[in-house]
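Side project, low priority. Logging it here so it doesn't get lost.
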Amino acid sequence: MRPVGRPLSAASCWQPYALRGHGAWAFPPCGVASGRPAWWYARRRPPYSPSMKVDLDLGRPMEIQYLYTRPIEEARRRGFTMERTEVIEAQLRTIEDSRRQAARL
């Protein structure tokens, strides 16, 4: 029995496959099966932008509250700190605030 997500052969790593129902393309996770490092497959993928970059470029509000603030608050409730994530959140909020002020002028 093979683990879920591993291809049957290394040859199946060469062709991208459509993710059902999403219309997206991906490469099977086969770095271990084929002996190739993961970066080899990543360089063959088409370029893309993260959703927050797309939001920023299109002038939409970034989802800072959902992607950064809530996890930070949940970690704090459980007694952990996410110092680096808090720095990123502050930087993103600064970008968002400056963009809002520029739109008001």
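Brief comment: The radius of gyration is 20 Å.
Revisit when time allows.
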